[in-house]
Amino acid sequence: MSERWELRLFVVGGNEAARRASANLARLLREYPPDGTYRIDVIDILEHPEAAFEYNIRAAPTLVRRAPTPEVRLIGDLSNTALVQSWLGLPDRPAGPEDTSGSR
Amino acid sequence: MTVKDYSGLEPAQKIPTGVEGFEHITMGGLPEGRPTLIAGSSGSGKTILALEIVYRSVHEFGRPAVFVTLEEPGTEIVRNVKRMGWDLAQLIQDGSIILVDASPEPIPMAEAGAYDLAGLLAQIQYAVGRNGARLVVIDSLGSLFQQFSDQNVIRREIFRIIETLRGLGVSVLLTAERTEEYGMVSRFGVEEFVSDNVIILRNVLKEEKVRRTIQVLKMRGDTHFKGECPFTITTAGISILPLSARELKQSSSTNRLSTGNAKLDEMTSGGLFRDSVFLLSGPTGGGKTLMGTTFAAESCRRGERVLMLAYEESHAQLLRNAQSWGLDFRGWEQEGLLKVICQYPEAMGLEDHLLNIQREILTFKPRRLIMDSVSAMERVAPVRYFREFVIGLTSYAKEQELCSLFTSTTPKLSGGDSITEAHISTITDAIILLRYVEINGVLRRGIAVIKMRGSQHDKQVHEFTIDSEGMHIGKPFTNVQNIILGVPMAFPLSESEQFEKMFDQ
Question: Between B224 and which of B216, B237, B318, B363 could a Cys-Cys bridge form, CB atoms 3.0 to 4.6 Å apart?
Answer without folding.
Answer: B216
